């Protein structure tokens, strides 16, 4: 058994990976990556929700051959899991998103790239090769910048755009505020630069303190019709949030802009009502997400929101989920509750902080192995066999209910 697992003996679980990563990161980075918004209760509930379910294993089923792969964006993905878009990965390791892309390519796992990456989308696409990659988008009212970004993404072979819809306003992250989070001077957010603009952008990352803005003017018109263009440079505080986003105007526009070349997904759906609107507006897929508990604190854990979304969508479009996934059995449970695929955020950042590309591979290998193990021990040999028949829900008094 252990021969099958060329693992790092110091790090056999995602929780150990988190501990190793913690000592590799400076305080500002560790806090930025790990914290949730406000009291962090939604962040914690994302994790705890998985413990409300138990697996009903079936036996004597010949599990000598287990196929953990699924099809996503026309590609075979080694496991039903991808790497969620997370911003500014060079804070964790000098290779940043490039290391993540190389690890994803090696492991045959889809990668989401944040538009606030510290590496260009072209470099990531090149490092990721034929492996599917999707671009996460924060859509500004001012369209110039997004038009250029989408054109670049199409040219670089991105399969889909994940429009993040849970950030009309940025959640309050108290540690980030207390630490006066600032991107170090040697890093930049190159997807916001005009191509060919190689001027260092370091000074422009400080919250609202820079003097210039590259790329086009972002901003929005407020409810009183006043034009609001955030002052200072493009920073995530001033430019990730767009309170004016709406289904009618923005989804239709984005679909047109992406044409047949890139799918349009919405990331950050948490209710049946919005899932129905997503179907109605013709999006290609949904990611049930609360941004890893970094936006609306007090929102439902994603695993708890998943069933109503799945029921509303009725299989018309794929439903993915992220938030709190730290074990192979978590992936199994999410799939049993109807998700087609899951994404992980922080564990990859911890892998990156621990050992760069090798650490991300380790993270993905640990989870791949745990998924295979969960499937085999539950008596399942193919991902699409995983269903709610394999799950029970257990309440606080210990009452066990079939689903
Ligand atoms: C440090 C950090 C940065 C993130 N940056 C982005 C981002 O740029 N765009 C986005 O849509 N989501 C972003 N997310 C949210 C993730 O895509 C994902 O929804 C979340 O991390 C999943 O939860 P998990 O970390 O518990 O796996 C970020 C999350 C973290 C932790
Ligand atoms: C606001 C972004 C730039 C990054 C993000 O989504 C996050 O930190 O959660």
TrEMBL record:
GO molecular function: FMN binding; oxidoreductase activity
GO cellular component: cytoplasm
Segments forming domain FMN hydroxy acid dehydrogenase: 6-396
Residues given in the record as FMN binding sites: 85-87, 114, 136, 164, 267, 289, 322-326, 345-346
UniProt entry keywords in alphabetical sequence: Flavoprotein, FMN, Oxidoreductase
Biased composition (Basic and acidic residues): 195-208
Record carries keyword Translocase: no
Entry similarity comment: Belongs to the FMN-dependent alpha-hydroxy acid dehydrogenase family.
Name this polypeptide is given: Oxidase FUB9
